[in-house]
Amino acid sequence: xxxxxxxxxxxxxxxxxxxxxxxxxxxxxxxxxxxxxxxxxxxxxxxxxxxxxxxxxxxxxxxxxxxxxxxxxxxxxxxxxxxxxxxxxxxxxxxxxxxxxxxxxxxxxxxxxxxxxxxxxxxxxxxxxxxxxxxxxxxxxxxxxxxxxxxxxxxxxxxxxxxxxxxxxxxxxxxxxxxxxxxxxxxxxxxxxxxxxxxxxxxxxxxxxxxxxxxxxxxxxxxxxxxxxxxxxxxxxxxxxxxxxxxxxxxxxxxxxxxxxxxxxxxxxxxxxxxx
Length: 276
Prior knowledge:
Protein name: Tubulin polyglutamylase TTLL11
GO molecular function, one term: tubulin binding
Largest sheet: 2 strands, antiparallel
Oligomer: single chain
Number of helices: 10
């Protein structure tokens, strides 16, 4: 944390919630007996996890609102007694929480670390067909075009070569052979390559962050224009941008929602402020 306090997070794919263990009573004869250590640790973890979710939170608020309402009424004593009884929860007798909620409580504080998450959002946008988990060559080309990443030094032929090289290497590792195409891991590698190529003078973290900002800015412009054209609003932005410029390739993704006007405007302003 900012105060240098460490937070330990453990991710276990298949945790055991058993609170007993096998004990050999005699040769070849085993019996499950309770484990005081497991009971002390695992019961507390499950209990505190459910308390963090807190399904009773809404009921507590309703009870407090009711209590405030009846306190000013004619049936003061009865109302307070009834509300006080309802406000009592089983949690009142429990020990203090041993678990701490880190996300999304500290989401803004760690926002600078969400680069891979933002790259994944770009990846999902260009998947093309709902339910697929890999990018095809056409979708990767659409990503490059819509984000305006190609130029005279990085042609679409170079884009195809990059797609083939990275996809072939990741597919040769034997990861998810059920469908062909570029996986998320391969897309992240390609994105890092594009960032290093475009922003050579910056450190790697800033290279990737700058390219994400650049892609989000161009996609926000595209979404804003598509919204203006779809609604038939002849405003200044639509007039300047045009509805069907030559060579524009719209993303084939039909199931991904467009940014609304306020979000698109925020993205544009955010990118301009960042660049200035």
